[in-house]
């Protein structure tokens, strides 16, 4: 779970195929560098999180659905009246609409709605897909590619304006077909968000609200960068397992490959010595040391 001490009790996560995704820590320098790029609307801070930004890495699984989880079960709203906290999700740069955070429960988002009266309306459920990475690249996707492989949850302070309006027209997500390798700037982005779409009736009316900050800056940002496990290994987020050298104990080797005795050895048995004749003359022999250190016995008469 990604948490911020400035929002105690509020936890954000990504659920992949019905299970909370395991989170991997990002390099502290990377977190600090990214946090400085974001402009925030300051409302309350703590010494631990002067910059309300969290960055985690997760594993993407091609073809599997995912959902954003904002768990406010143990979160106590810091204000009894307006403004309230709203959340907005971003996937590869595509932004969904605002939703008010329901305090005391788990908020979940696995789809979004887009369309217009002219083109019709659709519901898009979130899935991971494989990204086609081409060799080279002409730089035309460099700006868009900055957001590839990222899921972001932005929190805003908003107030209701008292109005109710029809569901507004929203452009649908633009599919990512492929990307040039150079446009990724060395990042091991190998996955994308794919949307499974189905036609729906026009959504109902919605209550109007506006941001407290005229510059529309978030009060907190939770970012999740997703890769396949191979991508996480390539970027050094996950360490590759060390392969242990396989060794077999002598006794184990013997049990696996027992030595087979030659047939003549089986039949030969133990060689018996001849009994010594007391009337015979003593046996004479010579010892000769060989180059390999062994000793040779010479039984010839001369």
From TrEMBL:
<protein>
    <recommendedName>
        <fullName>DUF7918 domain-containing protein</fullName>
    </recommendedName>
</protein>
<feature type="domain" description="DUF7918">
    <location>
        <begin position="9"/>
        <end position="240"/>
    </location>
</feature>
<feature type="compositionally biased region" description="Basic and acidic residues">
    <location>
        <begin position="258"/>
        <end position="276"/>
    </location>
</feature>
<dbReference type="Pfam" id="PF25534">
    <property type="entry name" value="DUF7918"/>
</dbReference>
<feature type="region of interest" description="Disordered">
    <location>
        <begin position="258"/>
        <end position="283"/>
    </location>
</feature>
<dbReference type="InterPro" id="IPR057678">
    <property type="entry name" value="DUF7918"/>
</dbReference>
């Amino acid at each position: 779970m990604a948490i911020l001490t400035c929002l105690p009790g509020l936890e954000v996560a990504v659920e992949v195929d019905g299970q909370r995704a395991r989170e991997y820590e990002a390099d502290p320098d990377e977190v600090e560098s990214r946090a400085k790029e974001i402009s925030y609307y300051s409302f309350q801070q703590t010494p631990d999180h002067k910059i309300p930004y969290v960055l985690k890495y997760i594993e993407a699984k091609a073809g599997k659905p995912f959902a954003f989880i904002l768990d406010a079960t143990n979160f106590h709203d810091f204000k009894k009246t307006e403004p309230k906290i709203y959340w907005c999700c971003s996937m590869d740069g595509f932004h969904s609409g605002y939703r008010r955070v329901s305090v005391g429960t788990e908020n979940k988002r696995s789809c979004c709605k887009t369309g217009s009266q002219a083109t019709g309306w659709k519901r898009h459920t979130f899935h991971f897909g494989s990204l086609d990475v081409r060799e080279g690249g002409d730089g035309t996707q460099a700006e868009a590619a900055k957001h590839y492989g990222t899921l972001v949850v932005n929190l805003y302070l908003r107030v209701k304006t008292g109005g109710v309006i029809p569901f507004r027209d929203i452009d649908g997500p633009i599919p990512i077909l492929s990307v040039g390798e150079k446009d990724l700037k060395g990042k091991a982005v190998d996955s994308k968000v794919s949307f499974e779409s189905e036609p729906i009736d026009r959504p109902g009316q919605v209550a109007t609200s506006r941001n407290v900050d005229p510059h529309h800056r978030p009060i907190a940002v939770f970012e999740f960068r997703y890769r396949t496990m191979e991508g996480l290994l390539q970027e050094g987020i996950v360490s590759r397992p060390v392969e242990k050298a396989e060794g077999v104990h002598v006794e184990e080797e013997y049990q696996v490959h027992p030595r087979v005795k030659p047939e003549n050895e089986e039949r030969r048995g133990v060689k018996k010595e001849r009994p010594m004749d007391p009337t015979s003359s003593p046996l004479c022999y010579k010892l000769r040391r060989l180059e390999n250190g062994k000793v040779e016995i010479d039984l010839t008469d001369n």
